[in-house]
Amino acid sequence: MHSGPRTEEEALAEQRALRSRVVSAPGPASPATVAGLDVAYDGDRLAAAVVVLRYPDLSVQDTAVVRGTTTFPYIPGLFAFREVPSLLDALDRLTVRPDVLVCDGQGLAHPRRFGLAAHLGVLTDLPSFGVGKTRLVGEFAPVGERRGDRSALIDAGEEVGAVLRTRDGVKPLFVSVGHRIDLDNACALTLALTPRYRLPETTRAADRACRDFLR
Known about the structure:
This protein has 215 residues and is α+β, with helices and mostly antiparallel strands. It has five helices and eight strands. Helices cover 27% and strands 27% of the residues. The chain has an eight-stranded mixed beta sheet, sandwiched between helices. It is globular, with a radius of gyration of 16 Å.
């Protein structure tokens, strides 16, 4: 099992050190594979899933799920430390290495600009971004009602992500880059991953896998 810090002070120090390793890059516009990552909880028990989809047809190529327990307390801004060890173990069990990681969470749109997507991206050195259902930080102007409409997510004067409408008239999602990918590319991939539903197929597949495993 991958281990991590045990205290808030250790986690903050590790977060600061890892944040300096984030790379800004365009990222792949047409990756061969994309992976969704998600974690489901049952008390202190958890299941972490990674599902690799072929791009662009979105067929499942590989799945890995691991069972674990939470070893780090819930502290706002440090939530990644509860999930990263088990997600790394699941990534280690894949037989297909994904080209891009799509996390159910945030990347740059984080109080210290280092959410789960950035954390996993740096540790794996894979292009990564987050697609969240809710906002963690920032303000934004109203988003148009049509699929593909977006608004900049601004925090402390900095653009930290995009608020993106993936279905006409349905609540938008919060997209933020993590590592080795830019925001335009992350938004384009998010739209390509949402041909029928609000959430990306990567997220939907990983959510099903970890919840089924817990049952």
